[in-house]
Amino acid sequence: MTAVHELDGSEAGGQFVRTALALSVLENEPVRLEHIRGNRPNPGLAHQHLAVLETMVELCDAEVSGAELDSETVVFDPALESTTGATGWRGQERGRLPGGEYAVDIGTAGSITLLFDTLLPLASVLDAQLSVTVTGGTDVKWSPPLDYVRHVKLPLLRRFGLTAACEVDRRGFYPNGGGRATLHLAPSSLESITLTERGPLEGVRLYSVESASLADRDVAHRQAEGALERLSLEETDLDLIERHEATVTSPSPGSAIVLRLDHGTGIAGFSALGERGTPAERVGEDAADAANRFLEHAGERAPPVDRHMADQLLVYLALEGGRLRVPDVTDHVATSCELLEAFGARLEITHDEAGEPALVTVESTVDA
């Protein structure tokens, strides 16, 4: 019997749970998660974490214990049928995921995009197309807005072999959620990732969205105006801007803005959500401020991806090897590296010679 990976989540959050479950499926090895979200005011599985776990159980027909709200200990065994020739980090046979069509209701405004984030790497072990329709929050706090996934993350991952698309039926803002989106994944042969240099700015894309209930206040337009007025670009870069504004149906009033910066090699995204009492222009300025901080780091060692994307790319980096320069070793980056190493991946973090922590190289090689 395969040994169970015993993982301690006492100093980690929901990302620890999502990454651990994805790695368990990718490597076809059981995990025991203890002290889940142990450093949070309300530890254990919340609705959105439970939805991720239940989805993974259904996709794999996995054996599980502790799949209930507030549970602080979960044992998950994907027990996939092995496929000869498909090997993991230590040469063991990987399983194959059958695909199919599934529907998930988070039941709250819990993040749809974080559930999608868990599923995306599974394309590398799919036997057939997988489509998962999720009801919940599309644009909510502590998670990437839907337009970040659609227009930043997926385009970047497609460059490295991922075949995926996101179909949106309805937006769901806090507090009611009620959004609905479908992730379509096809069997994918992922490629090694090399993202170490930024290159010249090649394009700026702006995606500003408002619920129909805010249309009479021109929220999407004002967000876009605030962002463009604040964004620090050279005069010669102004022709690179592509602007998208949209009004959408949603059970709750809300808005979001995403800025995408395209460079010679990478794609970086920066976002902000509308909040009651915050002027729409200020929401756009917040997204632009984050983009400006990114643009301040110039030169050949400037990171080609944003700090949130850096964490999300580590699983793909470890799967096929490669090199990635990240803006910062955040807590999420450090936790993901520890999890990957627990599953046998070899990662090396090398700080820039100048001693600037914002310029970090993460290397990964896998066993043949």
Automatic annotation (TrEMBL):
Domain RNA 3'-terminal phosphate cyclase: 11-344
Keyword Manganese: no
Any one GO molecular function term: ATP binding
Residues forming the catalytic site: H332
UniProt entry keywords in alphabetical sequence: ATP-binding, Cytoplasm, Ligase, Nucleotide-binding
Pfam families tied to this protein: RTC, RTC_insert
Gene Ontology BP, a term: RNA processing
Stated family: Belongs to the RNA 3'-terminal cyclase family. Type 1 subfamily.
Name of the protein: RNA 3'-terminal phosphate cyclase
The organism of origin for this protein: Natronorubrum thiooxidans
Species classification: Archaea, Methanobacteriati, Methanobacteriota, Stenosarchaea group, Halobacteria
